[in-house]
Amino acid sequence: MFDMIGNQVAFEWLGLGKESALGSAVQFFVMDTLKIFVMLVVIIYLMGLLRAFVSTEKVRDVVAGKPKWLGRSLAIGLGGVTPFCSCSSVPLFIGFVEARIPLGITFAFLIASPMINEVAVVLLIGILGWEVALLYVLAGVVVAYIGSMVMEWFKPERWVEAYVWDIKMRQAQEAQAQSGGLVSRHAFAWNEVKIIVKRIWVWVLAGIGVGAAFHGYVPQAWIESTLADAGNWWSVPAAVLVGVPLYSNATGVIPIIEAMLNKGVPIGTSLALMMSIAALSLPELLILRKVIRWPALAVFVGVLCVAFVLVGYGFNAAFAV
């Protein structure tokens, strides 16, 4: 639906060419703006409604009462069955943070969700076979699990924006909503939507704008040619760095990966690029900035970049002729 609206605005209303860079960028911007804002409103509202029925303190106590390995595994499992791109995962990440779910568990979801989904796995099986697809899923699970542990080691709670931790005010609002009926609970949830969207809407648009610019003006052929002679040691780090500014979901980037493999780019280099594009995008970081501060973003980027490079080297070594 969002894709159809984007097509209508860019190609019918504005009359832009379907093959033009501007047309592609505008279509992407309209489509993703609608999709992400709808998800923001729906997910934040649902999380607010949940908090109006069950206090965040109870949610936190339940999660805290479980072994960390179990909470982390459940978060990764949830991420694996939610076919979100990196930006689309942010609303649920915000909801988790608002519900006081530990950040180590929350980051496990944020890392796993854009990298692993059933559609991408099926496409990978068709292109590379089930063995490589299974190894990719396992690599994604390991990256999400260990990456979230490393993030937790840095104690990222200290870098969460202050408004998220305004516990006394939120507890009073939650208690008032919980003591009322459906109307008061709806009012509480809708107020949460207004507060959070008001804080981050500019950053959301900025992030989507950056993604749209890269989507429309960075040609696929340039990416392929840049990494075509990818037998050098620097090819995997280069693939990760090239992927960060770009923006797509795991499913959308698979055609690029297939084209690169057909041009002789090693599988590890190709999959490192895929992980980087899917799970670590500049638009995502711009949106996350309204929830966590720059030091947390720097650690997040550093941890994932190192992980993707190691995965790339590992696949290249395993599949070397």
Automatic annotation (TrEMBL):
It is found in: Cell membrane. The chain crosses the membrane at residues 36-54, 74-96, 103-127, 133-154, 200-218, 238-257, 264-282, 294-315. Keywords: Cell membrane, Membrane, Transmembrane, Transmembrane helix. InterPro entries: DUF318 (IPR005524), UPF0718_permease (IPR053166). This is Permease. It is a multi-pass membrane protein. One of its GO terms (cellular component) is plasma membrane. The keyword Protein biosynthesis does not apply. It comes from the Bacteria. Belongs to the UPF0718 family. It holds the Pfam family ArsP_1.
